[in-house]
Each structure stands twice: as C-alpha cells, then as structure tokens.
Specification:
The protein has 381 residues and is α+β, with helices and mostly antiparallel strands. The protein contains nine helices and 18 strands. Helices cover 32% and strands 21% of the residues. The N and C termini lie far apart (99 Å).
Amino acid sequence: MKDKIKPSAATAATAAKAAKAANAANAANAANAAKAGKAGKAKPSDPAATTAATTATAANAAAAAAGERIAKRMARAGLCSRRDAERWIADGRVRVNGKILQTPACVVTDKDNIEVDGEPLPGKERTRLWLYHKKSGLVTTSRDPEGRTTVFESLPNDLPRVLSIGRLDINTEGLLLLTNDGGLARALELPSTGWLRRYRVRAHGSVTQQQLDELKDGIAVDGVLYGGIEAELERQQGSNVWLNFAMREGKNREVKNVLGALGLEVNRLIRLSYGPFQLGDLETGQVREVRGRTLRDQLGSKLIEQAGANFDTPLTSTRSERPKSGQKPAKTGKKRDPVDPLSRLSTKKPSRPGDSKQGKSGRRERSDKRGKASRNADRRR
C-alpha cells in the first residue's frame, strides 16, 4: 500500500504566521509608497513606488520560503494552474518527500522534495507577462473537447508554459494577456483589481447615445447585474453601429448580453486594452513581452504583494515547455528557408544525357574510351 501524506497543522500555523507578518510589512510599504504617489499604480519614473514594489517582492520571497500551499508552489514553477494542480493531486500524481499527496491543503517549504509524475518540481520562475493579439476563431482554453484550435496551440514555440489572464470568446479578437505566474493571473482577473478593459464593438441595429449613457449606472440582464459601463457611439455604418466600450468587471459575454438588451446584435468585438497594457500596433498573432521593470512599476507594490509575484529569480531559457493537449509533435528538423522560384532558373547550357557531376574529368574519361575503341577497330581491319 502506497504511503500518503497529510498536511501538518504545525507547519500550516507557522506558515500562516509568516505570511501574516509579510502581509503587514507589505501593507506598511504600500502606505509609504502611497504618500509619494499612488500605491499599486506606479509610474516607471517613481522611485518610491519602485522601491516599494521591490520590497514587496522580497517579502513575498520570504513568505514563500516559510511555506505556501502545494498548488501555489506548482503554479509558481510554471507547471500548471492551481486548479490543475489540485486535479493532479487528486489523481495521485504528486509526491512530497517520497509520499503520495492526499490533499491540496498541504503547506510546503523550500526544504521539501516535491515530485510530479516522478520528476522533480522545477524551480520557481521569474514573473513575466506577454501581450498577445488573438484572432477570431481561437478558443481560450488549454484543451477543447470539440477539437477546435486553441490559443495555446497558436503561440510561438519559444514561449514557456503560459496562462491566460481572463478569456476571450471564440469570435472575440484583440488583446489577451499571458503570464507564467498563476498568482498574477488570478489577481488581475479579480474585479476588485479595478483595471479598465476597453473594447471596440460593431453591432447590427441602431442605438442612441442617450441609451448608452444609461449604462453608467449598471444594468440587469436575465437576472445578472452588470456594473457601470462607459459606452460611446462612434458612428453609424449602414445597418451597423460602431461603439467604444469600457468596463471593469468583464463577466462572461458581458458586452454581447448588455447590447442584446438594447436590441443590438454584436458581430465583431475587439479588445483594445487591459488596464495599462494596450494592443497598440501589435499585429494579429504576434506576441510581445513586457519588460520586467515596466511590469513591476505598472503592477505596483499592492498587486505584487497580492499576487505573490517574483521578480528576483533570474530569467531562464525560453525553451517551449507548454503542454498542448492534442497538439501534433513538433518537427525537430531545421526549418527550410522559402525558395524563390526565380532561383531555380539557370543560364548554363543543359547537360547532355551522359554527363555526370564529375565535370571535365568525366568527359575526358569518356573521350579516352571512345579513342581506344576506334584504335581497336582499325587493327581488326
């Protein structure tokens, strides 16, 4: 019978005390940063906010060393999301100090030996963020039961394993944030973060600006209450209207449901921004990484502490380690350069059927054979 491990109450209590102390320190640092500027909304040129963000990162590292949930540790290693980690634990795929883990309610430290599927858990990765221009027709999920192409199957192979921050519907295009840090993804998805999300919408039908202004106070649709929305009528184009939408909640199909209540049918939806990060000139299908210092300054100490982000670990290789369900195996051969059709043309004279690659030496050899045959024929005469 396989050994199974249960969480230690003493270890959990110790970790809780350490985390509480770290949180108190981070709160104090955030308060100090707020006096100099705005905590959590730091400008890149604000040294006070940058110092507070650095201190918050150090406090997060100290709290992690004291102990953290196993699912969180697995997500920090870039192996899977917290939810997937809990599933893997339930399937008996995770061992701690040689024993099969029975429950995700287990606190681990840097001294614990963690194995997943018999392999040691990778070290913690530095928190990173990418901007991705999603095209219509891709599903924002790691695996699709209907076999549709997913966002993660369309990403460049040089990316590490990443998670999406929120989701975009299959027909929605535009900016999608990607990160290798499950804690950051979770923090930025929360409505309490208050980040504004801007969309450009094309919808069939007609609407007035007065109707759109009424959305500032929120609206209830089919029993679901949506928060305040900033909506602007851009122009009427034939039977369609173009609108600009801005909201902070981002509930499932919020734009389509709200506009549907106004008698509009959305036929194109483009996300332009998510918080301080803009789609800009990023072309469809392209990925661009946000620089570490810019990311740290934009998050600010409050979000860094909340997400438990790590900016101290050196960057590792960007070799692809993303598990893609149903993906075809990658080709190991070198990628061939595209061939210009004109390069196939040659100005050389076509070779004779008997010519070989030996060139002149081959032709001399054939000439010698013909001469020898001619001399033998003369002797017979």
